[in-house]
Design brief:
Layout: E1 9-15, H1 23-31, E2 40-45, H2 50-62, E3 67-70, H3 76-87, E4 92-96, E5 100-101, H4 106-116, E6 120-127, H5 144-155, E7 164-166, E8 174-178, H6 179-185, H7 198-208, E9 212-223, H8 234-251, H9 260-276, H10 283-295, H11 301-318
Length: about 325
């Protein structure tokens, strides 16, 4: 529970234009959760055009407890989310990008992760679209409703398994943060404006400060992917390259930057580590991760051999803990 003067959870939503396609859907999903009655919900409009600005205002009528703040200029994801963070009063912050749908009960599971893991500073859910270990296997041709249904099946599995697993970095499409982390580290680095690598940077800063990063394997959110900045273009590739250069200058050229396939392999290894400590893995989640590993195999022969060797080593470690059909 939060203190008498401070809510337990502040949900922070950043949006820019495309209200009906993004922020509107995110808010509808958040307010469908009965727990929302206890949350502080802060929405920052990142200088949308007049038509979309009116829709943000109209949302305050549909959701009376929503706090809306307009920025006079677009500050990108880092600056816009920093505006959200500066307004938050909760003990835990949940940062939500505009292109996210959050099923009922998922934020409570992020909160549970902090209660069960006092050293955790950042916790993120699994999702259908991410560039790190949060991504689970999902048929990309499925409609949104089916993605949500299958994601919830993954999250709600009752066949065992560790609920929280360590992560090297987290994707800030949706992430929960202790206030302590923000108080110590401050906000996102606005040198990464309008976006790309600011979440990787913050993950490493949190780790360096002694906080653990966790993936809540029992919490799923839908991520449109590209909804924040739009689909990749030459301009966006140049932006990503620029920010990658700045990131490596800041953290060092030797900073590990694992591909999402390697992050998935690390999750299989984390399942095996947990199993060897006494937590039997979930067969359905392991199977999902193995499907993702198969789908993400490198095309180059040397990389493929190296990757499959790692995946198969994890599979062998997991085999004693799984039914024959999964091993």
């Amino acid at each position: 529970m939060g203190s008498p003067t401070r809510p337990r959870v502040s949900v922070l939503v950043l949006g820019y234009n495309r209200f009906d396609d993004t922020v509107g859907k995110a808010l509808a999903s958040l307010y469908a959760d009965p727990d929302s009655a206890t949350w502080e919900v802060i929405v920052v409009d990142n200088a949308s055009d007049a038509a979309n600005c009116e829709k943000f205002v109209a949302a305050t009528v549909a959701y009376p407890r929503m706090q809306l703040h307009h920025l006079q200029e677009n500050r990108g994801y880092p600056g816009g989310m920093n505006a959200c963070l500066a307004l938050a009063t909760g003990e835990l912050f949940v940062l939500v990008s505009s292109d996210i749908i959050v099923p009922v009960g998922m934020i409570a599971r992020l909160v549970d992760a902090f209660d069960a893991n006092p050293s955790a500073g950042l916790v993120a859910p699994v999702t259908n679209f991410a560039g790190n270990a949060q991504q689970i296997w999902m048929d990309p041709s499925l409609p949104v409703a089916d993605v949500l249904a299958r994601g919830l099946t993954y999250a709600n599995t009752d066949d065992g398994g560790a609920e929280w697993l360590p992560a090297y970095r987290l994707d800030f499409c949706c992430v929960a943060m202790r206030r302590d982390v923000y108080d110590q580290l401050g906000g996102l680095d606005e040198q990464f404006i309008p976006g790309y690598f600011e979440d990787f940077d913050y993950s490493l800063r949190a780790r360096a400060a002694g906080f653990d990063l966790l993936i809540a394997d029992n919490a799923f959110v839908y991520h449109e992917g590209g909804g924040t900045f739009g689909r990749m273009s030459d301009v966006k590739r140049q932006l990503a390259t620029r920010n990658r250069t700045y990131f490596l200058q800041k953290h060092g050229a030797a900073t590990p930057m694992p591909h999402e396939r390697d992050a998935n392999a690390a999750m299989l290894e984390a399942y095996a580590d947990a199993a060897e400590r006494g937590t039997r893995p979930s067969p359905s989640r392991v199977t999902n991760r193995l499907l993702l590993a198969r789908a993400r195999r490198p095309k180059g022969v040397v990389k493929k051999v190296r990757y499959l060797r790692r995946v198969n080593a994890a599979r062998r470690r997991l085999a004693p803990y799984l039914p024959d059909k999964h091993s």
